[in-house]
Amino acid sequence: MALMSNLRDKTHIILYTLLGSFLALIVFEWGMNFSGFTSKGNVAGKVNGQVISLMQYDDVYKAVTENFRKGNPAAELTPDAELGMQEQAWNTVVDQTLLEQQFKKFNIDVQDQEVVEAFSSATPPMVIRQNFSDPATGLIDREKLASARRDPKNRELWLQIEKIVRQELKVNKLIRALQTLVHVTEPELGDIVNRQFSLFSASFVPVPLRFAGAESQFSVKDDEITKYYEEHKELFKQVPSRKADYVFFPLTPSSKDSIAVRNELAAIRGDFASSVNDADFVQKQSDRPTGINIAYTRADFSPAAGAALFTPSNLKAGAIVGPIADRGEYRLLKVKQVTSAAQPVARASHILLRFNPASQDDVQRVRQLTTLIGQQLQAGVSFEALAKKYSADPGSAANGGDVGWFSKDRMVPEFSAAVFSARPGAIVGPVQTQFGLHIIKVTGFDQTAVLCSEVVRTIRPSSETVESERRLAMAFQLNAKEKGFDTSAATEKLRVEKTGEFGKRTQIERIGYSDKIAAYAFKAGEGDLSDVIETEKGFYVMRLTSKNDSGYRSLDAELKKMITAELIREKRGAVVEQKLAAMVKTKGMTLESVAAKVGSQVVNAENIRWSDGSIPGYGVDGVFVEALSGLTPNKLSSPIKTSNGYALALLNAKTLAPGVDLAVQKAGIAPQLLRAKQEQLFSEYFAALRKNSKIEDNRP
């Protein structure tokens, strides 16, 4: 069953975190004390008063990182990845503790005889199935299992395995206890099967929120925002957080650093040209040792670097090209072969116009702006000038909208489809994507590819550059202590940035994850100035501006804006619902007359499917289709909420899809429904257990 699999999977994440290898089969390094966590060493935290030691947490964390390294030997252990593994280890220890507490609460225990019998049962514990199953048959290799158990060298190991098996058996007992709370009734099974395999035909009038009037007609008071916040506070739960202002001194390589790297590559250019074994040469000389016999197109370079490589003089076997500066590194390439790429690449520029599709005012604004830009293009204003003026994509706007060369899969589908179906020089759009509306100028296409080996050197700041920035940061920090943070920043013409809210182990906006910044922020008081904080990106001097240990997001300006938008939506929805409800009560009212009153049209749809919320010729709206499926045929509905407003509907017919045997479908769906309910029960059970537990995270 899905629930059983999910729970067992979860259990073995908890139980077998320290799974390694034993005689090429299994070895367990088990640091957890299943009778309860000890309090040796410093305290990492507590779960309902029960201590989790730092030693215990560290053991699990080491196992998680070791498992990561084994599974991803070439991957870099970035600060973000490290953060994720720290949280995984912490959650593992917390979940294990909660399980232990549940075992005690419900007096769940396992006798020695049960453990012995588990090894010889038809469905032995997972650790045995995972390591002693015959790959060809899937059956347990009993002889291999017996041999491993008899070997005296494995005595200590099997004691540990028995502990793990005992734990699994306990979890199984907890599962069985929960199973008794779940069952599937015949009425609910029949209802689901009927909806799943029925096709509906209906007529309806969709009424968008704009029927209530423009957003500007609806006001929201501060006390309404506060009331909404208090009533929906669970939506705004968060870990304790901090905010800070900061001045950043980036570790940007100087021109001198760049020239030094270029000279390094220039010095080995001749050796690369005469090299017989390019693989060895690249392995020894390159910061990217995998760059051997790679097929590149223009999309693999910045426009300037691509232009330098893809010239007639370089497009021939044996050519040595570079060093070429490209996105923070220098590249020295040895061309092996010039060929055609499997797919063409394109170059384009765009003007991005962002808008909120749920706001009619915003939609109207962007339509007017699109028309204005079109008029200016027709009048001869250059695309590049308009991109710099109007585009909401700061990265490309500064370059006249140019996004460089790209393959089809590098852009969102709508953007790529528009570009690759156009001709060079064409202006297409507006094209809507998840980012907004794009007006696109197609610059060109290319299908040339070169097979190369290359030596790459990243341009890094030298020790001289690092020390220079460090001195600047230290001088600012001293001045800020004496004269004040804002005064010093203004005097030295340094930009003051804001972090936004961040937790002890969460990303910081525009900074990323930094344990050093978090350590300062969660020890400092409001207004406290940091020392110079050194990171891989540069040096930070920070001032803590706020602390929030309430467990909920602060009702700041940004959240107030979000709540205001939701309240306006609710108010407009209430007006639409009220108007439609009055129409329904009017004698002789039909869908056609409703459509005339609201300025909409009657939608007639056949073969509506409850299973995926699809309405042919209209779209997908699961909430609306769910309501449709429960209507009485040939009776005008009350107002029904839709994804973007309300509707009045008439269910015309409900028929069973051809060839469907309800009895067979019930038999197939019943176990699936039971699994789903069991899965939901355990999910809710464990979520409630975590929510109602007092979990103290005191990790440094």
Descriptive report:
With 700 residues, this protein is of the alpha+beta class. The chain has 4 domains: 2-179, no CATH class; 199-235 and 557-655, no CATH class; 238-252 and 463-548, Chitinase A, domain 3 (Roll), CATH 3.10.50.40; 253-460, Chitinase A, domain 3 (Roll), CATH 3.10.50. 45% of the residues lie in helices and 21% in strands. The strands form 5 sheets. Strands 5, 6, 7, 8, 9 and 10 form a 6-stranded antiparallel beta sheet that branches. β16 (614-615) and β17 form a beta hairpin.
What would CATH call the class of the largest domain?
Answer: Alpha Beta
Strand content: 15-25%
Fold-level CATH name of the largest domain: Chitinase A, domain 3
End-to-end distance:
40 Å
- Counting helices, strands and paired strands, the structural category is alpha+beta
Q: What is the correct CATH architecture of the largest domain?
A: Roll
> What portion of residues is helical?
40-55%
**Backbone CA Rg:** 33 Å
Strand element count = 20
Unreliable residue runs: 1-40
What is the total domain count? 4
Main sheet characteristics:
6 strands, antiparallel
Shape: globular
Mean pLDDT: 85
The number of helical elements comes to 23
